[in-house]
Amino acid sequence: MLLITNLQHNVKMYYKFTTCCKFALAWGLLPLVVLNPTDAKDILVSYVHTYIKEEIKEEGLIRKAEPFVRFLEIAAMMNGQQINAENIARDAKIPRSTVDIYFSILEDTLLGYRLPSYRPRAKVREQTHPKYYWFDSGVARAAAGLLNDAPDPAWLGYALETLVYLELRVHNHISGKERLLFFYRVSNTIEIDFIIETRKAVSASKAHVVCVEVKHAKTWNRRWETPMRDLASSGKVVVEKMFGVYQGDHPYHFDGVDVYPIGDFLKILYEGKVF
Q1: Is 101 helix (H, G, I), strand (E, B) or coil?
Q2: CB-side neighbour CA atoms (13 Å) of 173
Q3: Tens digit of pLDDT for each residue in 33-71?
Q4: In a domain, 2, yes or no
Q5: CB within 8 A of 262, min separation 6: which ones?
Q6: What's the gap between Cα 86 and its chain centre?
Q7: Residue 201: is it exposed, middle or buried by C-beta count within 10 angstroms (0-12/13-18/19+)?
Q8: Which of 114, 144, 196, 218 could anchor a disulfide with 130, C-beta 3.0 to 4.6 Å?
Q9: 275 lies in a domain?
Q10: DSSP symbols for 48-100
Q11: Per the domain annotation, does 180 fall within a domain?
């Protein structure tokens, strides 16, 4: 389910599609959806139903479908957000241990990925619950039962994060770098969407990281840089680069922070200029 498997062939098409990515954020980037946008809803509904029927039921991965379907809807609604197994268990009316099993099934069937939190030898209390990203925001929206409603700004924001996260994963893999990816969060107001650890901490040597902040906005707000700058000045890690990604039209360079429109960011990512 990796979106880009042949870099030279696909990147040009991908830039063209994601630089005007309103459709992509709402409906995802399944090949059939991209090629048949007017049938996107039917394709996504069919995809989810086929997944539950063929990948889950017929493979015997679950005993009963109903609890899994309830879990799937909740997990889809939380695309791009931190997951709390206790809360999900309560809402889905399933045991806490079953939540872990179900998330493992999603990962084993390549439906999504857990993104761990980063803890750079800090004295502050960082948040430890992982985030969860689906492999496609359109599929997540279908599994959440939200296709009949226009996506709200919050959903589109998580969808943009999902797009960037998946491309970081793809580049990390096809480039052979295999760096560890994280997010960093201290509180509800202090968060860095993505941390790429480019060098591990060894003995007295600090870890080296690249920070990426993603915003679903046409105008970049300088205050969004604060968490990255604070981490850089904390002395806990060596911050090699800081990037902002947004949906505006112009790149900016603000004293160590490089801000790019989504298409421009993907271009430099695959040129190896991010990490």
Answers
A1: helix
A2: 13
A3: 999 999 999 999 999 999 988 888 888 888 888 999 999
A4: no
A5: 18, 19, 21, 160, 163, 164, 245, 246, 247
A6: 22
A7: middle
A8: 114
A9: no
A10: HHHIIIIIIITTT--S-HHHHHHHHHHHHHTTTEE--HHHHHHHHTS-HHHHH
A11: yes
> Measured between alpha carbons, how far is 81 from 129 in angstroms, rounded to an integer?
10
Q: What is the spatial order of strands in the sheet that 180-185 belongs to?
A: 180-185, 191-199, 208-214, 238-246, 257-261, 252-254
Instruction: Summarize the confidence of residues 98-120 as an average pLDDT.
Output: 95
* pLDDT value of residue 36: 95
pLDDT of 4 > 50? The answer is no
Contacts of 101 (CB under 8 A, 6+ apart): none
| 81-82, strands of its sheet edge to edge | 81-82, 131-134, 112-115
pLDDT band at 7 (very low <50, low <70, confident <90, very high): very low
Q: How many domains is the chain partitioned into structurally?
A: 1
1 part of a folded domain: no
Residues 6+ apart with CB under 8 A from 173: 2
What 3-state class would DSSP assign to 184?
A: strand
- CA end-to-end span of the chain: 23
Range of the domain at 98: 7-270
E strands present in the chain? 81-82, 112-115, 131-134, 180-185, 191-199, 208-214, 238-246, 252-254, 257-261
pTM of the entire structure? 0.90
Tell whether the model's pLDDT for residue 171 goes beyond 90: yes
242: helix, coil or strand?
strand
pLDDT for residue 236: 92
The confidence score (pLDDT) of residue 124 equals 56
pLDDT at 158: 98
